[in-house]
């Protein structure tokens, strides 16, 4: 079984409450439940963590080194300015997929830049909660392909 770290960044604990016109009505527990069901089908184990604190996310990323097989991350607002999270992702040398509920490229101009995108294998944005499932499927496909 492959072991995947799932990270939800700041304010994602408020999904379903915060700007439902942008982020939808689905709360984080429902997203995690769907991810877990998909992970079971893919023979993945998930370690799911949400934090509003940059250092806690970095500690989890560092802790994945040599232990996890990949990372699925929605860095939230840290996407656009956290070089510390970018460097942590780069340091662990794991396959990483970045996901976003909204299409960050159709939103405010400051959201168009992802400082984390250059160190991940791919980015999925704009499919609401399904972005997470697509990200997990992409990570599965990547881990199945010959090195």
From TrEMBL:
E.C. designation(s): 4.2.1.10
Q: Where does substrate bind?
A: 74, 80, 87, 101-102, 111
InterPro entries tied to this protein: DHquinase_II (IPR001874), DHquinase_II_CS (IPR018509), DHquinase_II_sf (IPR036441)
Q: In which pathway does it act?
A: Metabolic intermediate biosynthesis; chorismate biosynthesis; chorismate from D-erythrose 4-phosphate and phosphoenolpyruvate: step 3/7
Q: Where is this site: Transition state stabilizer?
A: 18
UniProt keyword Lyase, yes or no: yes
Tell me the enzyme class: lyase
Task: Give the keywords, sorted.
Answer: Amino-acid biosynthesis, Aromatic amino acid biosynthesis, Lyase
Q: Which GO terms describe its molecular function?
A: 3-dehydroquinate dehydratase activity
Q: Which reaction does it catalyse?
A: 3-dehydroquinate = 3-dehydroshikimate + H2O
Q: Which GO terms describe its biological process?
A: amino acid biosynthetic process; aromatic amino acid family biosynthetic process; chorismate biosynthetic process; quinate catabolic process
Transmembrane spans: none
Name the PANTHER family on file.
Answer: CATABOLIC 3-DEHYDROQUINASE (PTHR21272:SF3)
Q: How does it assemble?
A: Homododecamer.
Cross-referenced HAMAP family, in alphabetical order? AroQ
What this chain does, per the entry, is described as: Catalyzes a trans-dehydration via an enolate intermediate.
Q: What is this protein called?
A: 3-dehydroquinate dehydratase
* Name of the gene: aroQ
